[in-house]
Amino acid sequence: MRNAAAVRHSILLALALLFTPLAYAAETEGAAAPVDWESWQAGNEVSNTASLQRGARNFFNYCAGCHSLKYLRYSRLASDLHITTAQLRANLMPASASPADYVKASLAAADGVAWFGKQPPDLSLAARSRGPDWISRFLRTFYADPSTPTRSNNLQLPNPAMPAVLSDLEGVKQAVFRNVETVVDGKQTTEKQFDHFVTVVPGQLDAAQYEAFVRDTVNFLDYAGEPAQVDRRSIGVWVVLFLLVFTWFAWLLKKEYWKDVH
Fold it and tell me: What is the DSSP letter of 34?
């Protein structure tokens, strides 16, 4: 598990990459259709325990330094993900924490405000409020932008306070835009439309590996938003089957009671 200092190192590394002088992406009138990033889906599966384990690893290595999961206990996480207490203490929990504690960020609120302009949000309910697809697109659409304080920007959430902290894994990308002519109130205007990404600094992972990394991380956040959802869905199937059988028995009983009347 990375401690807070290691997480801060990752942030500084990402910022260092983004501060590297880069030729800003040129606007283009390319004939090919633009990348439809808004249709990207997370494709996660909360019932996949192996994916959840990898997602937990990703979260505690890259996110837990700044973001908390204040509604999730370490003990519940270990039980659901089949993680032993020894593994929990060695790889996920801070030395000062106990299994009964909730997952709290190591970053102090005041430091978060000083570094990012606001306190990094708790992510307990992020997947429930935003949806897994939104989070997946957010983590996959960062690009270099020298005009912002963090030297990065995002298609899903423009001008985020969070820098591209995963750029050491994904690499540094530039966004290429095209000019699109539109008519508004009878006047012709030119608007910028996203076309595609260009990788200018390769990361540790290739595109498929990074997509899998994001999918596992989003899967874990989806689980954290409602740890009981897999059990709920499983029980729900049996409840519906019970109600169907009960309805059939109730119909037979009604038919028996009313046969003399008819």
Answer: P
**Cα–Cα distances in Å, from 218 out to 27, 28, 159?**
32, 33, 21
Find, among 4, 33, 93, the residue nearest to 85 by Cα: 93
Residues 50-68: pLDDT tens digits? 999 999 999 999 999 999 9
The residue written with tokens 């908390």 in the block is 68
Residue in 164, 176, 195 with CA at minimum distance from that of residue 26: 176
Question: 3-class secondary structure for 4-28?
Answer: HHHHHHHHHHHHHHHHCCCCCCCCE
User: How far apart are alpha carbons 82 and 93 in whole angstroms?
Assistant: 15
- The alpha helices in 38-166, defined as continuous H runs, are 49-62, 74-80, 85-87, 109-116, 126-130, 132-140
Residue 262's pLDDT is what?
59
**Position of tokens 């012709």?**
188
Band the pLDDT of 186: cuts 50, 70, 90.
confident
Query: What is the rounded CA–CA span in Å between residue 27 and residue 176?
Result: 6
The H or E element containing residue 257 is: helix 229-258
Range 4-227 has CATH code 2.60.40.10: no
Helices and strands (H, E) in the chain, number of each type? 10, 6
Q: Assess contact for 52 and 63: CB atoms under 8 A.
A: no
Asked whether the beta carbons of 230 and 46 are under 8 A apart, the reply is: yes
pTM here is 0.79
Domain ranges of the chain: 4-227, 232-262
